[in-house]
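Thread: "does anyone have the structure for this chain?"

Original post by V.I.:
We have the sequence but no experimental structure in hand. Need at least a predicted one for the grant figures.
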Amino acid sequence: MTEHEHVRVAVIGSGFGGLGAAVRLRREGITDFVVLERAGTVGGTWRDNSYPGCACDVPSHLYSFSFAPNPDWPRTFSGQERIQEYLEGVADTFRLRPHIRFDSEVKQARWDSEKLWWELDTASGTLTADVVVSATGPLSDPKIPDIKGFDTFPGKVFHSARWDHDYDLRGKRVAMIGTGASAIQIVPAVQKEVGRLTLFQRTPPWVMPRADRNITRAERWLHRQLPFTTQARRGLLWGIRELQVQAFTKRPNELGMVEQLAKRNMHRAIKDPALRAKLTPDYRIGCKRILLSNAYYPALARPNVDVVASGLSEIRGNTLVAADGTEAEVDAIVFGTGFHVTDMPIAERVVGADGVSLAESWKGGMAALRGATAAGFPNFMTIIGPNTGLGNSSMILMIEAQLNYLADYMRQLTVLGGRVALTPRETAVAGWNNRVQDRMKRTVWNTGGCDSWYLDENGRNTTVWPGTTTEFRQATRRVDVGEYEVVRPPVEAASKKSRTKKKAEVSAA
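Reply from O.Q.:
Generated one for you, tokens below.
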């Protein structure tokens, strides 16, 4: 970066959110922007999560941008490599690479109230920007629990999102910690090659069959020749999921039938009653993320797999001890323990108008106006912000809705003219958040009887959107300037106030 470089917009992250923001800015005629990426390639979570078996649990034609359809998805549920290729293709197709600064992790972003811009300190230099768009995503920073005796373990340790491909698991005694979306893909992928696999399960997940198959050549040919068929396929997938939302958000008891399907899926593979009892959840399906797999249960039934129905409590050298006292000798530990979702590290690095970090501002719980802007942080927008997550559909739909909001935000700044910033009113943020939390009360995520990563340390659900994607898109189709305070440079603001006062005096005279 050049010294004292200034840009109109700085986007943090080059996953789906960051690349989508870059495309939308270009479509709005804004080319004075940079994408700050901490790694050496684009992809975000789909670059970082390269563990064996990694794949998406949303159908490919729905888990892709509407403005960048891919007629050649090879499977209905694509693997990590294909999604990464897709994102690389988006960066090339929309000529985004000249805007991307790799190896440029943002160390701090601080708002300058005098100059009305953001000062960003990155691993590759400093720059300033009128607007900052944070697209780091909630699934970007791995979370490893604080385990007693962790430093005494002499073997190999890594998180699922930081897979060590140089470490050979063949014949090893391996412990898998956690039973989330990553774990149920890793277990069947490594079970055949490890000597012994011990799964430490704190809470069993609900697992449904995965309707995955190869997409035929004829289908792909049809999608290439008649693009509207790709749109129709995407529309059908979207519509089905929109119809499912009410069961999650308003009528959780209707999910009982789905639980029966999940139990049948388990019973087909797990014949041992004792093991089946360990794997049966005691909470309403949907309270935690519903997982999809045809291979997870069969892998757990294999003779070289042990299921410990208790979380990891302590490590004594090579011995792992569960909370119920069960012990296992292992050579390697794989943590599938999720991410810093409600306490995102980027929030600690963003300092707003009052000298307070975003993390401090969100100490009582994350809250942002329409999931995008936070009070006290002018011209700062988050893609996949508070309460924008989904429990049953594609996050790309939510991202695109927020890109609409970003586009109108930039238009409003242009209309206001000059050096100007918008900061959401505290009353607007509180009002939006109160409405969201009120709707959240009857959802399965709050009433289903589980403790999930959707909830923060205060037990509040600050992660999921309690409605349809259509509702969210309507709520973010444009910026209501009345929900914001217009901020101008101190000198300009004082001059405007003085002119207003003189006009008043003249009128009075």
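V.I.: this helps a lot. The mean pLDDT is 95.
O.Q.: and The chain has 16 helices and 20 strands.
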